[in-house]
Design a protein that fits this description.
Largest sheet: 5 strands, antiparallel
Order of helices and strands: HEEHHHHHEEHEHHH
Shape: globular
Strand content: 5-15%
Structural class: alpha+beta
Number of helices: 10
Oligomer: single chain
Number of strands: 5
Helix content: 55-70%
Length: 230
């Protein structure tokens, strides 16, 4: 799979692209099965659970643990899988149990769905939504690059993608899912840095440099060649 930092630099037909993905799709799908709608940051417990772990670090741990637990057949399998993916920062099964319990305290209706091998069913729903999105783009003769539950399209097709994603969710789930846009996140990041342009110019410059699209010479060469041959 193409690294997310490289995906930001993808051009289609000589145009910059945007990537949109559903926000926490699997926990959201599970909640919908219980008639619930998850709001806010799904993985922020709102309080420290383990000593020595910052709240910012805790959120990322909870997110990874929950996503693993959704696909695992048991708690023990989930904890082993988590530590296999984090060999430099392993946690004891007791620590992981406390974190998972804290997530369940926040969303008690999800208790029976974790560590019960629900991932396959959810991935099938993902595939149905993605199939519907791709079908609409094919019918409209527009290019699209799917990456799991996210989609890369030309910036000029952003609004169309939002409409299609909403339609696909309604068709498959009878409900819409929240989604996030790389373009919107970058715009917000640059807007924040611009606010400090005159007082912290170094910060402003770093943010602009971070988000500057890098178009390779090889791409420019191939695109020019394609235009000449079309």
């Amino acid at each position: 799979m193409v690294n997310i930092d490289l995906r930001r630099d993808i051009y289609i037909d000589g145009e910059a692209t945007d990537e949109m993905d559903f926000s926490g799709p699997h926990p959201t799908l599970l909640a919908l099965e219980h008639g619930k709608l998850l709001k806010g940051d799904k993985y922020d417990i709102g309080r420290p659970v383990l000593d020595g772990i910052k709240m910012s670090e805790q959120r990322s741990i909870v997110k990874e643990l929950v996503l693993i637990a959704i696909n695992a057949k048991s708690k023990q399998a989930a904890y082993r899988a988590y530590n296999n993916q984090n060999k430099d920062q392993k946690l004891t099964h007791t620590q992981l149990d406390h974190l998972l319990a804290a997530f369940i305290d926040k969303y008690p209706f999800l208790k029976g769905d974790l560590c019960s091998d629900k991932g396959i069913d959810l991935m099938y729903k993902d595939s149905q939504i993605t199939e519907a999105v791709i079908q609409r783009f094919v019918e409209a003769d527009k290019p699209i690059l799917p990456v799991h539950d996210s989609y890369i399209v030309k910036n000029t097709d952003r609004r169309f993608l939002k409409l299609v994603m909403n339609d696909a969710c309604n068709d498959v789930l009878n409900h819409t899912l929240p989604f996030e846009s790389e373009f919107d996140e970058v715009t917000a990041d640059i807007g924040h840095a611009t606010h400090y342009k005159h007082t912290e110019y170094g910060y402003f410059e770093r943010v602009l440099s971070k988000h500057k699209t890098k178009v390779s010479k090889l791409y420019q060469k191939r695109y020019t060649q394609w235009l000449e041959e079309s």
